[in-house]
């Protein structure tokens, strides 16, 4: 069991999480202070906040990172709580890009992509040092709408893109390799009585899958990793597609734990941001749970393989949940929850 299940899972999960963190860090350094600048500038209305949150999350490949940044900006008094509502909705939509890419079943490209990105990264070091970045943090408070400023000097911005872009590509390659390794446990897992019992119980009530997805995501702090494992098991017929979708919905609930932790000890407004994130994901899970079979049926029309169906269901779930919640962001009651000056 150790060599056939535990070791591959731990190895694959470690590669996946390291790849996600490498990709997130590289993209964060690539974008630099512009992340805060964009969040501060393009969140005047919930719709603009939704679009900004979607774009930044898709670019950074981490809804948690954008949510934590938003909480930090609110705690610092740069943003007000009402202006973060659209951002929270957008992060749930933007995070679907990761699962959609994984659902393309391009795991065989992991090694070539890793080698190519490593070659580009090494070449960037021979091209010379990175240009300096001039960042004025005081402008976050003192500037008029225009917000945070960042300037790359030296006329060699392409080198920064080359270096950090290759690191981001290497991170994604490691994500693909991690999934490939985790998928090898399928035959061994199917022969285990405990796993067969879990699948049997989940067939009777998909709530088992929702709970499992939420618990494991809260443990590893990565909904993408848990969804990827569910997609991998469904691809090799280790679990039914409906169970994979239930695990995906649960993973969206489990990812709220990180935002909740980020809000602890912060301002009252920062805690409201964390709780709005929880309300969106838990509310969406409650709304969609009775319709998992219908969600799978719709996803089957738009996808082919089992992994693609789960990825498409994740996208439909997040997009519809965010769009249903968007009108509530315009309620006047939120204006009374402006805690900019409170700590």
UniProtKB/TrEMBL annotation:
Q: What is this protein called?
A: Na/Pi cotransporter family protein
Where are its TM segments located? Answer: 59-81, 101-126, 164-185, 206-231, 243-265, 272-292, 312-333
Q: Which domain of life is it from?
A: Bacteria
Phylogenetic placement of the source organism: Bacteria, Bacillati, Bacillota, Bacilli, Bacillales
Which organism was this protein described from? Answer: Paenibacillus sedimenti
Against Pfam families, the record matches this protein to: Na_Pi_cotrans
InterPro entries in the record, alphabetically? Na/Pi_transpt
User: Which GO terms of the molecular function aspect are on file?
Assistant: sodium:phosphate symporter activity
Could you tell me the keywords of this UniProt record?
Cell membrane, Membrane, Transmembrane, Transmembrane helix
| Localization, UniProt | Cell membrane
